[in-house]
Structures are given as structure tokens and as C-alpha cells.
Amino acid sequence: MLKPAFLKNETIRKTHCVPRSFAPDYHHHFELSCPLVGYHDSESPVSLASLLAAGQLELEIWHRPSPEDSSDAGDILLGRTKIATQDLLTRTTGLNGWYPITSLDPLNRNASVNVGAIELSAAFTSRQDLELALRAAKSVSWQPPSISDLSRLLVPDSLGGSATPGSAHHHPQCDHSLRHHHQRLVPETISG
């Protein structure tokens, strides 16, 4: 299950079930349509870039017992991870790597333990979409948290000057996509 926590009304995405596997390869692919500028809980505009700079993707890994299983336990949560989305703005390759999956430690409920890892890739569908999201953010006076990381990405508009304040309001509902694909889970060896 994947939830883009930076998009308030986005539905939870689920992969297909991979039966009889301790290291499933989901090959799951989907695109999110994201408004460049929106209004979240206020009348002032909020840019996609500002949501990504502070946002995260939340993933949960579940076990679905086989129909032959006599217990009525239902689906079992194996672990979860939260991945900061800021790299979608600072790297043209976006998010790309292995992320730890943690679960509550059965011996100490206040601690968590690594139970595996998941490989995930997520990026803007094109460099132009990333640049447009950054221009729209700049037009509503968004400043990146780290100027050194993002200043090279805040590009001038197509007319040769900087994007002007308010220019994103001409098409605030213009959507741009983030693509996400290839989830693969590798469990940790648990000794005991």
C-alpha cells in the first residue's frame, strides 16, 4: 500500500498480491496527477514544490493469508516506511533506491526493528514537468528550505526572465505527473 501523504485527497494505491513469495517483486507502476498550485486548508496558494519539500510517501507491506489458512486473522501488517519526497525536487532521477521496512519489536513495543527493505523509484515524468513545478512555486513566493540544493533548479521562464509572481494562477489546475514504479521487497534475516 502506498499513500502520497503530500497530496491531501489522493487515494491509497495498492499493488497486486504476490502469492507464495518471501521476496516479492511487484513491478507496480502508476502515475499521480498533481496540481502545480492548490489551496489546502486556507485561502493562500500552496505549491506542489512546497508540499514535496516537506512531504513524504508512506508505504505499508501486508501479508495476506492463503484461503486455506484456517485462522480468521485477516491481512497482517508486516512493516512500514516513510520516504521524504524532497529528492523529487533536488535530483532529476527523483527517488531511486532501497528503503528500510520497520515493524514494532515484539519484545519491546516502544522500539522498532528492520524487517526488510523495499526498492522504489519515483520521479517527475519529465524534466520539463519538474521545471514547471519549480516555476509555479516561485511564482507564489515559495522559497526552498535549502537554497544551495534548489537554486540551480529554479530556472528562468521561457521568455528569458524569471517567472513572475502570479503567473501560475493563469493555470492553477494544470496537472503534472509523478511516476512511481518497481517495488521489490527483500526481507531481513531474523535470528532468534
Describe the structure.
- The protein is an alpha+beta fold and 192 residues long.
- It has one domain (2-187).
- Helices cover 15% and strands 35% of the residues.
- It is built from four helices and nine strands; from the N terminus they run E-E-E-E-H-E-E-H-E-E-H-H-E.
- The strands form three sheets. It has a four-stranded antiparallel β-sheet. Strands 1-5-6 form a three-stranded antiparallel β-sheet.
- Strand 7 (95-104) and strand 8 (112-124) form a beta hairpin.
> Order of strands side by side in the largest beta sheet?
2-9-8-7
- Tally of helical runs: 4
Topology, number of strands: 9
- Taken together, the total number of domains comes to 1
Multimeric organization: single chain
Q: What is the C-alpha radius of gyration, as a whole number of Å? A: 20 Å
| Strand residue percentage | 25-35%
Low-confidence stretches: 154-176, 180-185
SSE run: EEEEHEEHEEHHE
Largest sheet, if any? 4 strands, antiparallel
- Helical coverage, percent range: 10-25%
Terminal-residue CA separation: 29 Å
The helix/strand class is: alpha+beta
Mean pLDDT: 74
Shape: elongated
Organism: Ciona savignyi (Pacific transparent sea squirt)
Region (Disordered): 158-192
Protein name: C2 domain-containing protein
InterPro entries: C2_domain_sf
Provide a quick synopsis of the model:
It is built from four helices and nine strands.
SSE topology sketch:
Layout: E1 2-4, E2 29-35, E3 37-38, E4 46-47, H1 48-54, E5 56-63, E6 76-84, H2 87-90, E7 95-104, E8 112-124, H3 127-139, H4 147-150, E9 175-187
Antiparallel strand pairs: 1-5, 2-9, 3-4, 5-6, 7-8, 8-9
